[in-house]
Amino acid sequence: MSFLFIFIFSYVQKYEVIFENKSSVIQSEMIEGQDYLPLKPIAELCEINYIFDKVHLRCILSTNEHKITLISDVNILKYDTSYLNIPFPPRIVEEEMYFPALMIGGILGTRLERLIFLKKIEEIPIIEKIDLTIRGDSTVLRFFWKTPVEFDLQFTPQQAIVELDGEYREKAKLKPKGAIKSLNIQPYQTYTRIELTLSDINACMERESEIVFYKKIAKKVELIVLDPGHGGIDPGAVGKNGLYEKDANLDIAKILKKFIEDSLKIRTMLTRDRDQYLSLKSRTNFANRNGADIFISIHCNASPRNRQARGFETYFLSEARTNEERAVAAMENASLVFDEEIKPSGDINFILYDLAQSLFLEESNNLAEAIQTKAEALLNIPARGVSQADFYVLRGAFMPAVLIECAFISNPEEERLLRDRKFKETIAHAIYSGLKDFIAHYERRLNH
Ligand SMILES: [Zn+2]
Q: What distance in angstroms lies between residue 334's CA and the mean position of ligand 1's atoms?
């Protein structure tokens, strides 16, 4: 008989206790945050004598060679003739002695010369319900559960696949709705896979327990989010004469905001309006949450090895083609070291393909071109052209998004210019002019 088969559908914490070629599945009790297991069935399995003394609330475990005495709620055990401190005491539950699962192999097994292995039988979370609902212009795939289930989403404009690490037992079929033309739920024992066919999807966004599919609609540009790079503990690049990139970025963004609002009459928000630290992820999240139509991250470049390097350059998110592009992205992505939420191994090695931005690849490229064209015409520093690289801050942005490197803070002459209000106005004006051209084309195309 297979225990695994029986218990995989049960949702209390269980342990498989293994001794030699035998094993038992034993249910634990949670006591003060620790999993405790009853000693009687474990002793039986491992050929240990078990005597429970109700009167003295103690239990004796013995073999031919050794003897352990445990007293309920006491952090000391007696082993043959000596005494040992133990971090968690044994406890009595329903007239049985319980011991922390964590210490059974190492403390009891070792001393009684029994090799006991414990394996926690993982619970499989349950997806209670899946449904589809229409919310404004969006179609929302919703999940209902008591314990959160992790899921992974892959999509193209025509198709999406969701894989959930949970079990779905509902047999009823779901009717497609809104932007979802067909859906097929495949329940497996340990996970659930949903295949969706989509139509007219502009973007989709993952939330804690839902996926929102946005419909492609002709949309006027109503909100622009400007993101002054770095801030707070993260200074960005620092000039030879002490200018912080974070300060120059903020100044330019503030001037640009004014230009856009005054001349284009488009609402503009800054991800930060003071010297404040923001994680890279929170900047894009801010734009997504507010439903921004355009996202512009403002930075200044640095080339520590080449102090002569200078000029204005605009990036969109795509795989870097040159070492120079890679170096600029690496420098800007270095802000991740300030982000305490990012685990050093996983998140920094991001995948070189961003689903959200891939939907706006063409628009982002066009936006970069429009800004760069104006920079070339209006600035008295070199225009270095449109580049592409893997900028973390542009990842996940559900809108055309670019990153601008306004000038080189590592170049002493440009560092001096970046301190000058007039120069910053010229930069902001060039960006504004490019943006204006882009918006005119963008809206015309959408209304077509
Ligand atoms: Zn920067």
A: 9
